[in-house]
Design brief:
Two copies of one chain form a homodimer. Chain A is of the alpha/beta class. Chain A has two domains: 168 residues, 3-Layer(aba) Sandwich (Rossmann fold); 185 residues, Dehydroquinate synthase-like, alpha domain. Chain A is 45% helix and 20% strand. Chains A, B: It is an enzyme of class 4 (lyase).
Amino acid sequence: MSSLEIKTSTNIYHVYVDVKLRHKLPSFLEKEYSNVLIITDSHVEKLFLDDVIHSFGTTTKVSYAVVPAGESSKSIENYFNLMTSAIENGLDRHSLIVALGGGMVGDLAGFVAATYMRGIDYVQVPTTILAHDSSVGGKVAINHPEGKNLIGNFYPPQAVVYDVETLNSLPEKEVRSGYAEIVKHGLISDEAFFNQVMEQNILSTFNPQILKKHLIKGISVKANIVETDEKEGNIRKYLNLGHTLGHALEAELGYGKITHGEAVALGMLFALQVSEKVYGVTLPYDTLYNWLSKNNYPLHLSRVDKYVLLNRMKKDKKSRDLKVQMVLLKAIGQSTIEQLDDEQLIQFLENFFRELVKG
Amino acid sequence: MSSLEIKTSTNIYHVYVDVKLRHKLPSFLEKEYSNVLIITDSHVEKLFLDDVIHSFGTTTKVSYAVVPAGESSKSIENYFNLMTSAIENGLDRHSLIVALGGGMVGDLAGFVAATYMRGIDYVQVPTTILAHDSSVGGKVAINHPEGKNLIGNFYPPQAVVYDVETLNSLPEKEVRSGYAEIVKHGLISDEAFFNQVMEQNILSTFNPQILKKHLIKGISVKANIVETDEKEGNIRKYLNLGHTLGHALEAELGYGKITHGEAVALGMLFALQVSEKVYGVTLPYDTLYNWLSKNNYPLHLSRVDKYVLLNRMKKDKKSRDLKVQMVLLKAIGQSTIEQLDDEQLIQFLENFFRELVKG
């Protein structure tokens, strides 16, 4: 059993990573709970809900609530309905919420837990690779029609219980989406780790031991940053590598057309190219490009207007005074934050997309 | 200028109490804010909104949002609409929300601030006596149709700016409602303070200096308890004196029929009587009864079914395993928590209402 300890300003919790953990969830909890509400989505429900229910045995009252799969479920309506479920199922301040699913479920169920009776315990049970990122760090939120994650809290879970076996069933694009964040954790922290990932074909050989190793390393990078900077001062912003363009692409192409990680992958390529130009350094642009290509990341986009992208990039929660801030690299493991002029950015975007098309 | 310092687990903030403070709000803030959203209700809007807007001068962007006066405005719909206002007015993580009004506005605007972009700064500007209680302690919430304050956070403000002059315009029942919590703060902490309040006719002589003294003392009692026990362990429960029956009466008679404080006043009388019987001590039941009577608190209720009240008391957020827990007193300043049997409680309720009717 591998476990990592994560310190926050309000608690310490553990992340457990191994196979078959969903069958023994209560053994990872430090308290006994007499009343548990499992929140999951319509996709994960069919695969793993029964396992998690049974893990609690017969002495615990276990109820569940299912929301439709997909990012649009992070709505105020579902949030309110889940509150109603919690009340109807008699949850009190000593009860537990289980977030069983990917990042969407983790964000939504975590925000319900954060605000039900001013905050009750919850545990993250991620079922995607991407959620190795979102399940650690305590960010929980729902969406507003005007923007993603605009309504939320910082609220750490009691534990993250990561059953690697549940990742077996992921479709390829979800594997790609999750691995992009693993690559990001390599780029901002550790060249050796980045190179290890670059040697791996992530589609053909699903090896739970390698995946487990990558997940643990990715989580530990994230955890280190979050421990240093829980509430998003400067250092936590490094986690945003690839996300400024990534979010803009996601929004512009339409959520669902390209996965979060696939968009971030393009954003990281862009950040590498901009970094090389701004700092006059050499970075593994080609290595990353080839790896993305080999693993079928979408690299050739239909024409995207660069002025429209620029405006999207300005809407980022992290932008100030309407200038775009990007995370760049002076070397692998040496992140920086740069504010970029509009003209400069347009030039960079033009180069980037021209070279991609050639590539 | 009188000010109190309040320490929480995440920050330190000040409570300022004096006349005319609404005209110089920015001078009590430790930061400059370029974008401010004032949230108020339809009643307070007419009286004080302009003063607060003008206090920010012309260099700050100030917008406002108004909800209907009354507890029913603490709804998920208003919460969501206020989020939309915040977005439309361009608030970012460095903006400020001003909660201008009584406890309802403080709870609602505070919860918006707590969850907008995972939490931005806010300042409480209370305009009722009752809000001396709710504006300190960091509890923010909205209501669910199934119960009050079921959705919320612990989220302290950056400051509480209490302009005593705004209390001039309060109707008598609001003065009674607020003073009940001041009396409570006396009962749970300080006999001399309790006696001072009992000497005061709160309706005929509105003296801002005496009121200011009482508010500061009440806030300091609350602040001491909240500093010791931010997240409602045992000690914070003492603040619940009079509230177990109080909440049941409010809910049973219908919100708006009796004010919160008026219901709590009856609850405190009940707690004094129960305490005398359980502990065999003598407490100032008659003193409090006479003071309440002199100040026109509603003491003679139309018939209330005691079994219905008992069931309401069991629904309290603080009840466990369906037994009623009450805050009692062994002496003034010596609070305790007792779990009471249903039969015993019914007997106590019967006695209490019989004596009230005689009184």
